[in-house]
């Protein structure tokens, strides 16, 4: 009966694939199939393990790690170029540290089991631990990055790069400074990283919590509804205005007039010209918060002009962002759909970076409520990673997963000792070297290993070479072979594998 | 009343310090004091947070990160020199994946709360996830490293580098190979890393589970007591033989004769000579397991002789190692006490790396029980890190926490725009550059910032320089100043900061 169920499930998967169904759907059914197969187990009465990683997580094999390290390296270079220090915090925090920081999203926090002692939760982002770190160490001034995994019990959509365990790459500037200078640098960082990674065209949407709040006020939204109306606005990148409007009026009880006034604003986006226009707007210009926000937005655009990146920036009144802790500028980078690049359609376009100013968060942790103004950006690696992974697969580019410079090989039998002696010399000289773990490997197998793994050189020891005090160095790509005096071998390998 | 308790605790801490009590003890009482103070809270009615990281964990600030990255970089270089690929796995596994792998230590596993869905646990080491990864992906042949945090609900002793969240740096070779070649490479790796990190003298103890089991058999230990007697032997690096013997006889019910026979063996350590002697031992040589183990140990020493590292290796019959999954060679590297280096006394000497062969673990995950022989080594970073951190503190060496090459500064007011323009050019050219986030910073403050953070160069823009198309470059160390044509600035900075 169980086997019949497995067969039925396999058939279901086959059909979904044939119908080119939603990839998430297929993935889900494949996972179910694998689980059923695993539970069915082997035929030797071995324990029936479910052999899988937890829902919403995955392993990174060597190829994926090679891509991941490329992405990290681009991001870290940029953070260091901007003079950031680096910190790390534990993967879990006291539960109360996270309480009251994420609004509705708090339900997605992973708690640890109470095994006696403190109540703990896995970190949900890197921003709250950062604020806790600043308050705990009384740091009022730092520019730091932090790259680490965070955890959300969200609905995973893995083919689109949405996981329950995922990396965040955060850069933040904390301290009391003149307005918009650190904020502008955060946007410059996003522009540098996305350009460097060559992900195609992108736009960075910018707005300000004060402009949003001022706008809600002049549109006649009651104070008590700011938050919930804000979260409706936040949906505008996914659903059309009409739907958002009916949510505001229907579910959230906003007056139709207020909703229509909001509707006029949130469809606006542009640059300095729009900011100037809104500064003249008879209603908005009367609101203190909005005026402050617009004034700072103007300053921000002046700085971004000096950085030469306004072409990538869009002041967008529909940008709201969910997290509770933002107090000023907010921003989000979105990849634009590529034409004729069907590879990326699978992944879908979407936000790959976001951030903003949060001037009140550190104060929530300080016993005396002392504030440390902060602004920061978080790069979402998984989505970027999904795109690069699929692009690489499509390109059939061969990616090396090791850096080995030379394979130490032998052409005849009984030379294991000589191989061990030579490879040890090479390791001690800092050469990246491998050998096959066989007493008498065939030369053909040794050469094949180089082909498979991309090792460029083979150092071959043989009876004659040992007598002559040389090693035969073979260049895998050209099949050329040269005898090198043993004492020059290290230098020769270095020269041939440099660059 | 609460305040009086805090004062009493503060007094207790003062006394402990005065008495130069055990540092762990002091740390514990200080932590208690801080917690009491935190609970007492501020005087403005703010929420009374306990501002701390969870028990047994800590933050890494920029200075600690700088040391940590040095250590990682040495370890990763070595792993790459030996041709390893890299993988990563999730921080948690299905609970059942970890079940039955760690013997008594299983009680130290962190479980996640059941929030609906799968039952999860934080990983306890990187070996079991590796075995799960191999079985799940049907990989029979890989050489990989994995550097990540693992979690144990152990009694922390943080001044000695024992934490509940800590890094492991693992290198493993999986596959069916000729005997002892991969095993020898693992020992070579330990020797390379410990030498490279300059931690002082060390010894790598080596033994084999088969020799231990054979020894127990010929000493007359009943099969059912192998495990528990093995864990008594494991204590010999901390307590004297007499204590271990009385545990064996008293608590574990071993006959005094058997215990004495074990006592003779476990006090032996040496090299090839000892192996030869034991191969002639009338009792051991009759035991199949012991003979196999000793034969392989001899082969291992031959290979280690070719690697030139037998001076660092001690075949030690008292080495047992706790984990259940080892099946062959086991080893452990121990730092030796330095004379006249009182700094390190605080940290204490102890094991900094360990590993061994586990040929059965992957098979536990395979539905058909197919085995993949493995051998690997795990470097314990926290202890090494504690030593280096204390050494650095004692040396008063100044450690840079950023790589910034140049500070973009101005000597006069109203030059913010010019600074922004110049720094943007530098960033785009790949130069690591910072500026102060002030509209009109004082030159003195800008120079002071360079002194504090170790930035070697200052690029100063001023009215006259702008007119002349130059930038004044100041070398912080010598206070020398030179005018550089703007178009040559990038090249000049690169030259002056290369190497």
Short description:
The first copy, chain A, has 499 residues and is of the alpha+beta class. Chain A has helices spanning 2-18, 23-40, 62-81, 95-98, 127-136, 181-196, 209-219, 226-233, 241-251, 256-266, 272-280, 288-306, 342-347, 361-365, 381-395, 416-428, 443-453, 463-468, 489-497; strands at residues 85-86, 92-94, 120-122, 142-151, 165-174, 202-208, 269-270, 313-316, 329-335, 351-357, 374-380, 406-410, 433-434, 457-461, 470-475, 481-485. The radius of gyration of chain A is 29 Å and the shape is elongated.
How would you characterize this protein structure?
Two copies of one chain form a homodimer. Chain A is α+β, with helices and mostly antiparallel strands and 499 residues long. In chain A, 44% of the residues lie in helices and 17% in strands. The first copy, chain A, has 19 helices and 16 strands. The longest helix of chain A is centred in the N-terminal third of the chain and has 20 residues, at 62-81. Chains A and B meet through helix 3, strand 1, strand 2, helix 5 and strand 4 of A and helix 3, strand 1, strand 2, helix 5 and strand 4 of B.
